[in-house]
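re: that complex we talked abt at group meeting.

here r the seqs, copy pasted straight from the sheet so there may be weird spacing, ignore it
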Amino acid sequence: MRFALPILLIPGWLFAPAAAAAPGVYQPPAAFVREAFGGNAPAPKTLWIDDALAREIGAILGHPPDGRRLRYWRRGARTAWVLDEIGKERPITVGIVVDAGRIERVQVLAFRESRGWEVRHPFFTDQFRAATLTGKHELDRDIDGISGATLSVRALTRLARLALFLDARVNAS
Amino acid sequence: MSPRRRVFRLRPPTLKALGIWHRRIGLTAALFIVFLSVTGVLLNHSDTLGLDRRHAQSEGLLDWYGIDVPAPPIAFAADVDWIGQIGEHVYFNGAPVAGRHAALKGAVAVGDYRLALVGDRLLVLDGSGARIETLGPEHGLPAPAEAIGLAEGRPVLRTDRARLRGDADLARWRPTRADPVWSAAATPPAALRAAMIRHYRGQGLSWERVLLDLHSGRLFGRWGPWLMDLAALAFLVLAATGTWIWSRRRNDRK
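got the structure back, here u go
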């Protein structure tokens, strides 16, 4: 009987790496937002994207924004963003927490591309921790790429820049 | 007197005969050389030319590939507008809405907005079909929503437990006892249906795919690749006979 538990755990241990590697939804956005605010998320706020803001967002993303209104969460100097960006063909959903103008956390919430899912791992996302934005809307540091995941790396870097830019915008208003 | 025995010997072809065959094969192969060169150069610059992002719209070509819709389009009327879906594509009055979307469950018009329930998300469009935003459970949207309706000018979502009415900002959803008019699938006008099908089919075939199949010969059916193999063989023969003729003439001159 004492061997029953290890035996029962074997299938999970065997399949865990495959499950971790597969594209899919890694964390529901609602759970990410709750976590970002210690389990008690504030009500979402609204940011309207006028033409001028759309141009600035377009300069960061390299294409016009997908919508005209963005929802975000804010408490004090801390904001949370759930943003989508296409790597090659399908959107990657990323949650980003910004605290006092510095990135606190980048989390890939859903990955739908067939390649490049390695960007979800902390060894990559931790590079964004404490990053800030320069005057030219670039990150203040270089982000190391992952071979075979170039487009996903670029997509996440763009979203990190966008979150910092939007955080500065909503904190200034 | 014994009959004379005729002895056949394999003799190397004369320079003249070789020249004739080299010319004949060369003229036939020229067509393939031009064809393969043009398709090859285009494929080399496929990314720059955007061939992987552009799609063939020719009905004949799409029929040849057998590209068809996976299921008949579904559509919902939202005031005077139609929001429909084929596969993961959502259409507003026959024009595609950017992105890929889960199953369309209903659509309503609320003031200037058009709301489409896709999976557990609410697609918010303006009156021209441009996307304003996409709301999900993280924005307070009730989940899992099964249907969307309209009561007293406000959207109502039906979950397995309750009916909830949204406020003007679609930020708060509160239980309601109102009896909404639920959005139900209907048959869109034939022209919109045709536009949706045309777009969907067109998304299925990139020009890069067509060029690759032209280059390999696969576009011409099962014998196409064999035809290209034959052309490659002809190129090898041309290279060999050309070198042979050149060396023979060079030796003759000496």
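couple things i noticed - The longest helix of chain A spans residues 150-172. Residues 24-172 of chain A form one domain.
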